[in-house]
Protein 1
Amino acid sequence: MKLSIGNSLKLAFRPWVEGLEHVPAEGPAILASNHLSFSDSFFLPAVLDRKVTFVAKAEYFTSPGVKGKLTAAFFKGVGQLPVDRSGARGAAEAAIKSGIEVLERGELFGIYPEGTRSPDGRLYRGKPGGLARVALATGAPVIPVAMIDTEKIQPPGKVVPKLMRPGIRIGKPLDFSRYDGMDGDRFIMRSLTDEVMYEIMKLSGQEYVDMYATAAKRQLAEAAKRREE
């Protein structure tokens, strides 16, 4: 199913790709990407020969009706794993556990260090918990990835995507073996995450904002509410 979905996406949108040679032909690796659009988790797997697994909200797999079944089949087809996000801490732990399991099988694991989609196309501070813990627990190399223009194809709230070419830049793998045995050190986790975010920034050309995207979304929502009052 991944093959048919991937081929359909490539035919319809013709994404351009740079750096495919940096994705290993076998063995575990973490693909750490910026996050501009709901469609990011579809375009990246579509251009890779290997399966890459992301985690997704459990609601995408349990919605009722025909639409719900189609959505669940689509997400399973592109390698998404359901994670219950009803509790923030529990969801984070489940995502980390899933990532470790994927990598221990020798597969590719995809993660968005920002934790959520960018609200304005800029690159936000990476959250150290998920990416760093998975990388340090497994020793897998981290491959920085930049999605280009996907927010123009499917902005938040838009159901029907616009037909245009997105881009994907894949950077050289980053080796963090120098941090072996330091997975409990919050300063090491912060340093690792910041290094990955810097490489993503160079690949994407995005403006970097030293705050979390979740905080930026709250500020935007509060500003919009004040304007309505």
Protein 2
Amino acid sequence: MVTGKFRKPGRWRRTRGGGRRVSDSPVDDPGTTRALPERVEPQEAALLSALTPPRPKVVVKADLLPAISAISLIALLGLPMGWLWSRLAPPQESVLGRGGTVSPMLVESYHEFDGIAIFTLLAFAAGLLTAAVLWRIRGRRGPVLLIGGVLGSLVASWLGIQMGGSLAAGLYPMPSNPQLGDLIPVAPEVTTMWVLVAMPLALSLGYGIATSWNGFDDLGRRLR
């Protein structure tokens, strides 16, 4: 009869004296730090998922009404933008020809570009300022408010062109009895519709930079 205790199987290791001894450790070299696989219990996995906050989703219904309000308010910016443009854009000194046609004098035709450039700069500055104001509305940050701001800026640019042209025509009216060869100041006007993208582009750029600088998944909506 065997009276000793059974010994668990181990690994033989060579000692300095030439002998061998049994090692119960599964690692050959005690100095190694090899990581062993560890099983995660279902209870621990459920606890970890409960402690991890859920990823925030895009809020549409709650932000829809503020976005519509933003469209209407931003569109009103076209009124002061058109008024300011009508005061800054220079007229063209032109010569009255036969049949009521006018021809700009010398370099006066460059003022057409000046009117376009001034309106583009005004719209770009208005877009950046609008983006800063929209970003300050912390509780409504997100793509819905951004889309509302872009649509409102499009309407504001169109309204600014129409309002600015009407005001400029009132500042530089045609003379009552013009004669052939008279110098007539022609009111400035925006001759291209590409200026409509200036304000939405600036708004999207400013809002996008603020979003990329923010480090929260929900853009800080919960910190309001």
Protein 3
Amino acid sequence: MHRRRRTALALSVALLGAGPLLAACGSEAHPGAAAVVGGDRIPVSALQAQVKDVRTAQQASPQAAQLIKNTGQLSRAKLHGLIFDRVLDRAAADAGVNVTRKQLQDARAAMAQQAGGEKAFADMLLQQRGVAPDQIDDAVREQVQLTALAAATGADLSTPQGQASVTKTLTEASKKLRIDVNPRYGTWDDKAIQLADTKTPWIAQVTKNGPQEGDAVTG
């Protein structure tokens, strides 16, 4: 597989971890919410459902024990993804970016073909990025939307300058949403576009070349 088309999704940091499911607690201001983004609640129940989907898929794998061991703090990883998607949606809307269903279908087909088929693609995402089969469409959409955002803002994700430009665009969108995270999961860093104080040495935050059309995704 060509280096420029290896598994990648610049700027979307999958803060994966393997902790137990957290009970719904919520902050005093937002009981039962894992976070509030732009005034909309992300329920703890929705977060737990995503975690459960990943754990169920991992447990069905022959490498179940290793997969679970390798994905610590999974609840925080999935919350990061849920928040990041909303930030990306806001940035895309501000830039006039619209991703069509056909674009998503074509992108998923290309990624699956590159990976060696749908099953290989799904296995790769589960093993490398903690993405359950029913979460693949969202992961593909995230990458396509991010690439489209870069194009719309004139940023080249294959360069540090381009990556910094997209990060700035996302930071501006993030600040507008006034993200409030349940303290149990940490705090949101607008500048870094991620949950703060999470260490994930096995996840690359920004790939050297940035995402290319047809790349696999991190989820």
Protein 4
Amino acid sequence: MYNEILKDRIEAGLLLSEKLKKYQNSNTIIIAVPRGGVPVGYVIAKNLHLPLDIVLSKKIGHPNNKEFAIGAVSSDSMILDEHSNIPKKYIDDEIIRLRKLMKEKYELYVGNRKPQDIKGKNIILVDDGIATGNTLLASIAMLRKKKPAKIIVATPVIPYDTVPVFKKNTDEFVYLMAPKYFSGVSGFYEEFNQVEDKEVIQLLRLPISTE
């Protein structure tokens, strides 16, 4: 367990690489969550000589407060909390809108490159920190449909109470810190700058040796 504040996403990636060393040069793909997960995932991919890809999911906000998540959606999966008072039409419209946004975002990041084929492979799903975990759970549900051998989730920080949820929903869960008092992911980094689209695009285009 790593108990100090992390310097930045690069250090987070280096420390997670150490915990994931057994996957070096194996039948494994790193799948990062944009935007913040991409710098962490890039460092892991580079250190372990593994290919890097991305997965997109979005939270579904409450109609009266968009910041309050009532669920999450990926390109072909959805997780919804039990909020029976929210009109079905609102949820359906949000899913259509968010999926359109995700499709545009994916094309912006990787162009017309096809996603990696993950069937029968280990995938390491990487983010720069987990708060509620809803959007990541939607991504896990989507990736499961593609029949990978194993789903490993790797993150620098997660609230203590959320750890059992991820242990239950993954084949392996790797993390550095699980504090009982959790005020937000940014509180566990010295530098937690906004990752811009431009940086994501650059990192995804950098060559990674898989030898």
